[in-house]
Every structure is written in C-alpha cells, then in structure tokens.
C-alpha cells in the first residue's frame, strides 16, 4: 500500500471535516489533536465552552488546520439540528462523525436516582442517536461519510 509521510493513503484524512462530540474531554481532545496533526479539519462539539475554545486555539496554533468549537448539548434535538446546519454551511461537508461524548455519574447503578439516569442516557444514548439522525442525511446526500 502506498504511503505518504508514513501514513497509508487509504487512511488519508487531510482536509476531511470531522465532527467530534465530547471534544473537550480526555479522549475527545486526544482524538482532535491526532486528527489535526494528520491535516483534518476538526469540528469540536462539547458543553464546556471554555475548554473547547482553548482546544480550538491550541490546535490552530499547533497544526494550522481548520478547527472550530461549538457549545452544544447533543441531547437536545434543536441544538443538534442547529449544529449540523451550521457545520454544513461553514464547512460544506461532514466526512466523519465521532461520537465520543460521555456522561459519568459518581453513584453506583443501585444508588442512581431516575433524574440522574435520564441525564446519563440522554447524553450517552439519545445524544448519539440524535447526532446520527442529523448527520446521516448529509452523508447520504454527499454519497460519502463515516460514523
């Protein structure tokens, strides 16, 4: 397989537009860094606007790639619709969706109350589903994409 700078052309993501939910968390920020280093444009999606904006500035300075942060609650259908429309308007395409957002709770399942359970499942399940629902038609229309 042909390689460019040690990277297989099969996995070349230069100038690809990648949406990362949970981008300001440990895992999401590491993905954003690695993908930016590979030349991807990263769309950073998180509720923590301060960490997310800091990550955006860092990636732009470090790699010179296009990075943009959005403060979005992925468990809210209206916010997800607005996010996807905004990203498509700004970037033109969404090539990859990485659902990395996760909510943890310090209590055990036995001690978890219903409201806390609802918050967990709204982010960890419903949020992923909402993102997939909104991004899938974009990818179908452009006849490419990966979730």
Describe this entry's structure for a reader.
Helix content is 48%, strand content 16%. The chain has 147 residues and is α/β, with parallel strands linked by helices. Helix 2 (49-63) links the parallel strand 4 and strand 5 (67-71). It is globular, with a radius of gyration of 16 Å. The mean pLDDT is 92.
Key words describing this protein structure:
4-stranded parallel sheet, 48% helix, globular, 147 residues
Task: Please render the helix and strand layout as text.
Layout (H helix, E strand, L loop, with lengths): L2 E2 L2 E2 L8 E5 L4 H12 L3 E6 L2 H15 L3 E5 L5 H15 L4 E4 L14 H29 L5
Parallel strand pairs: 3-4, 3-6, 4-5
Antiparallel strand pairs: 1-2
Quick description:
The chain is α/β, with parallel strands linked by helices. 48% of the residues lie in helices and 16% in strands.
Question: Main sheet?
Answer: 4 strands, parallel
**What structural category do the secondary elements indicate?**
alpha/beta
Q: Helicity range of the residues?
A: 40-55%
Give unreliable regions as ranges.
Answer: none
Mean pLDDT: 92
How many helices does DSSP assign?
4
Shape: globular
Order of helices and strands: EEEHEHEHEH
Biggest β-sheet: strands ordered side by side in the sheet? 5-4-3-6
> What's the gyration radius in Å?
16 Å
User: What is the straight-line distance between the termini?
Assistant: 24 Å
Strand content: 15-25%
């Amino acid at each position: 397989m042909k390689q460019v700078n040690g990277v297989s052309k099969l996995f070349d993501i230069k100038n690809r537009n990648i949406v990362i939910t949970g981008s300001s968390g440990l895992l999401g920020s590491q993905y954003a860094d690695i993908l930016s280093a590979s030349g991807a444009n990263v769309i950073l999606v998180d509720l923590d606007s301060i960490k997310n904006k800091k990550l955006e500035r860092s990636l732009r300075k470090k790699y010179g790639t296009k990075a943009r942060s959005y403060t979005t609650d992925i468990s809210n259908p209206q916010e997800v619709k607005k996010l996807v429309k905004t990203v498509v308007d700004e970037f033109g395409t969404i090539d990859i969706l990485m659902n990395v957002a996760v909510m943890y709770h310090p209590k055990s399942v036995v001690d978890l109350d219903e409201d806390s359970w609802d918050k967990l499942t709204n982010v960890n399940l419903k949020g992923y589903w909402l993102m997939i629902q909104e991004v899938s038609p974009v990818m179908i229309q452009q006849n490419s994409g990966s979730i």
